[in-house]
Design brief:
This is Phosphonoacetate hydrolase. With about 120 residues, the protein is mainly beta. The protein is about 10% helix and about 30% strand. It folds into two domains: about 1-45, Single Sheet (N-terminal domain of TfIIb), CATH 2.20.25; about 65-119, SH3 Domains (SH3 type barrels, Roll).
Length: about 120
């Protein structure tokens, strides 16, 4: 809890703390760069940081590798660990699915960033 850190932009908690270059909210787990939120809410909502399973920052157009086997509804076989996915697109998805992509053999799909690693 520092006097120079702004409250959390998601839950307005005043108990934010600094971790490396990020500000972190202990109540909702939201992480953001404090310099971006100081510019105004319009700038902060436009730029969100999405990280993979090991902490690398992901961007639109990156290639990622699936870290663990995933079950797919309606398919007898799932996505195997080690499957490479090219040209991802970051989205505000449902239930934590923040990557939109096309996987060969499965088609269009949404993935969680917590199960992929930047290639």
């Amino acid at each position: 809890m520092s006097d120079n850190l702004p409250p959390c932009p998601k839950c307005s908690s005043e108990y934010t703390y600094e971790m490396n270059a990020l500000a972190v909210c202990p109540e909702c787990g939201h992480e953001w760069v404090p310099a971006e939120s100081a510019e105004g809410d319009a700038g902060a909502t436009g730029e969100r940081v999405v990280k993979d399973a090991v902490g690398n920052v992901l961007c639109d157009g990156d290639s990622v590798t699936v870290m663990k086997a995933l079950k797919v509804k309606g398919s007898p076989s799932g996505i195997k660990a080690g499957t490479k996915v090219r040209n991802i697109r970051l989205i505000d998805g449902v239930d934590g699915h923040d990557i939109d992509c096309r996987i060969e053999g499965f088609g269009a799909m949404q993935l969680k960033s917590s199960v992929v690693k930047k290639a």
